[in-house]
Design goal:
The protein has 337 residues and is α/β, with parallel strands linked by helices. It folds into two domains: 8-228 and 301-335, Spore Coat Polysaccharide Biosynthesis Protein SpsA, Chain A (Alpha-Beta Complex), CATH 3.90.550; 230-299. It is 52% helix and 15% strand. The protein is built from twelve helices and eight strands. It has helices spanning 21-35, 52-62, 77-87, 106-117, 134-151, 167-175, 183-190, 213-227, 230-258, 266-299, 321-325, 329-335; strands at 8-14, 39-45, 66-71, 92-95, 121-128, 159-166, 194-200, 306-309. An eight-stranded mixed β-sheet has the order 7-5-6-4-1-2-3-8, with helices on both faces. Helix 5 packs parallel to helix 8 (213-227) and helix 9 runs antiparallel to helix 10 (266-299). The longest helix is centred in the C-terminal third of the chain and has 34 residues, at 266-299.
Length: 337
């Protein structure tokens, strides 16, 4: 038997967050219990290898609103986020990280703003990032400037994955063919009525960051290549620039030869070969990024595979928890939803 649809779903992707779970559960439950609305908390365990799964099981024993969605392997923050959002059942769906840098108390403001303004999307916008390192603030600012130039000004600055979505937005996301869309870009692109709620970003409550420089760079690359062909145009312009420079070098070489100023000639030839080789390799690398994405889509592999979902023994599509747990065709098809 499927439970009644809750008013609010709160999706929390997490990976190795055992140390922060007690504080998260305490603050989040206090906020949601006082809200006076039916709710569910969808904790997406992204293949944690610490005690996160055990801790979630213990919390769920005393918190019936907690729903644990466990992925078979670590699929990445964005994939875990998409898995939780697409499987959430609430009329409104809020996504928030587990580290408590985004305050759960802001969820109340988001819900009120959505209802008062009849909004489908409410972004949590960071008004203060003083708790982040200078390098983190600098790279984040660069990321948002780049995304706003590529996607458009509808992408709110300083808005990460802390947002509220209506059921209409979630259903639209479910229809997209992308197995793992970057929600912070796709959601603004959809064009639903939106608003903002500002908040002050806090320090991580416990544990270590799960977004080191390598993952930040990976997110930026995924964002650019999944949402813009600008790098391909950059490769084209770079190739044209290389042709112009080589043309100038040819003119210079002819003039030097005509006045008898050529001696060995190998330095200019060496530089020209290096320059052309660098341009060609860069262009091939950019093309490879897009070809790689095409290859991934053609393969049809899901971005994540769900192992278990504690919500019900049978979901709305009639797939049992046991069939989802085997990781066969049923699980793969369900993961692509």
């Amino acid at each position: 038997m499927t439970r009644p649809e809750p008013v609010l779903s709160v999706v929390v992707p997490m990976y190795n967050e055992e140390s922060v779970l007690p504080a998260l559960a305490s603050r989040l439950r206090a906020v949601l219990d006082d809200l006076g609305e039916t709710y569910e908390v969808v904790a997406v365990d992204d293949g944690s290898d610490d005690g996160t799964a055990t801790a979630l099981g213990g919390l769920r024993a005393g918190w019936p609103h907690l729903r644990v969605l466990r992925l078979r392997r670590n699929s990445g923050h964005q994939a875990a986020l998409v898995a939780g959002v697409l499987r959430a059942r609430g009329r409104y769906v809020v996504s928030i990280d587990a580290d408590l840098q985004d305050p759960p108390e802001t969820i109340v403001e988001m819900l009120h703003a959505a209802r008062a303004g009849d909004l489908d999307v409410v972004y949590g916008v960071r008004a203060d990032r003083s708790t982040d390192s200078r390098f983190k603030r600098w790279t984040a600012a660069g990321y948002y400037r780049l995304m706003r130039r590529l996607v458009g000004k509808q992408v709110p600055a300083q808005a990460g994955d802390f947002r509220l979505l209506s059921r209409a937005v979630v259903e639209t996301l479910r229809e997209l063919p992308e197995p793992a869309p970057v929600l912070r870009l796709v959601v603004p692109w959809l064009g639903f009525p939106s608003g903002e709620v500002t908040y002050h970003r806090h320090r991580r409550a416990a544990g270590r960051t799960k977004y080191p420089l390598s993952r930040m760079a990976g997110l930026a690359a995924q964002s650019v290549t999944s949402f813009s062909a600008a790098p391909l145009r950059f490769a084209t312009w770079l190739g044209l620039a290389g042709v112009v420079v080589c043309g100038l070098l040819v003119v210079f070489t002819v003039v030097a030869w005509s006045v008898g100023a050529t001696v060995d000639g190998w330095p200019s030839l060496y530089v020209a070969i290096l320059f052309l080789g660098a341009v060609q390799l860069l262009c091939l690398g950019l093309l490879g990024e897009y070809v790689g994405r095409i290859y991934t889509v053609v393969q049809g592999r899901p971005a994540y595979v769900v192992a278990t979902d504690t919500a019900t023994d049978q979901d709305a599509d009639g797939h049992t928890a046991a069939s989802r747990g085997v990781g066969g065709p049923t699980a793969l098809a369900d993961s692509l939803r």
